[in-house]
Amino acid sequence: MHVLVVHNRYASAQPSGENKVVDQEVALLRGAGHRVGLFERRSDDIPGRSLPGKAALPLLVPWNPAVRRELAARLRAERPDVVHVHNVFPLLSPAVLAACADAGVPAVATLHNYTQVCPPGTLQRDGRPCTECVGGSPLPAVRHGCYRDSRLATVPLAVSLSLNRRRWWSGVERFFCISAAQRDVLVGAGLPAGRLAVKHNFVPDPEARRAGDGEHVLFLGRLAEAKGVRLLMAAWDEIAAGGGAGVPLVIAGAGPLEREVAAWAAGRDDVRYAGLYDTARCREAVARSVAVVAPSTWLETFGLVVVEAMAAGVPAVAAGHGAFAELVDDGETGLLHRPGDAASLAACLRRITAGGARNREMGRAARRRYERDFSPAVGLERLLEGYRAAVAGRSGGGDGPPPGDGSTGSRRGDPRGRDGGSR
Questions:
Q1: Residue 238 resides in a domain
Q2: Is there a single domain that holds both residue 88 and residue 196?
Q3: Model confidence over 76-89: pLDDT tens digits?
């Protein structure tokens, strides 16, 4: 197939699972002999813009007419079979959907977060779950300044959600949800269920797998409140007060809590703050782990680090909500703790670091789950299924109102939509 991938790349200064997923899917498709083009913008380019350019940027978040013209011209010239849309914020905008309609090329979109129903895309406010805007007006997000704690910064996102909701619903032939938990939320908010298929992210088979019991517990990701970093620090302090876990905690990543984490780890033998790892060091660190910990306080739509651990034969300790509840088989491939509960997280970390033979069996079970559900072969099959459905044009596309849809959401644990979009 001939595919054009559309993506606004996140800033490179901080880890981005979304950038990683896009790059891996492009490489997977090309490796299988498909022709893949890229239509990209980079958030790294924003600081180099002129002052007038920076000032105009919020106006282009809901709609960027120049992008529409440029993309439509490219589509007419190259005539791909399908356009695969990922992130469009802040430099692309939903104008990419109008370009697809202009050129008559079907579009699919991967929903990496909840921006279809929540302006910042997190379903969280002040460290707690929030659904005030789901299924209704985004004005609460503006009132609370949900994006970067700023009402002004939230306005463009809220305007885009309001103006483009119907365009998303009618202009995309097939939505890829990256977990059944995410699909349930979006179907409940009114998105067209018949076009929401679950396509879990895949992970390339790593060169390194765990060979022994592991050397450390690993947190790998963005150092932010929503990722449960402060919760992890509180739980580890509780473990240390009780005699320790027997292995150190390694924290690798960057983000707004970086200074706080570095100060907390300074001078301790049981904690090491490692900074930002490159891809090779990430894989090595995962393969040397007793367990990977993912204590997110927000409802993760997927949780790439958990599947990366599975691929390396390493169990995970994760928050028991959102996608983690379907990725981690509690007691079999890892452990689930009560979300937001430091004592529960500490208990799970004690259990998994004291496991010995049980920990090793969890690692083997995690690897088997990876091979069954998250390998490149499975990822390629699900991608192509979605592309073929989009090319078939089941939902009509265009800019009109969404068609009537009487289908229902998928059962938890059964990711198949009404039309069998994924296994």
A1: yes
A2: yes
A3: 999 999 999 999 99
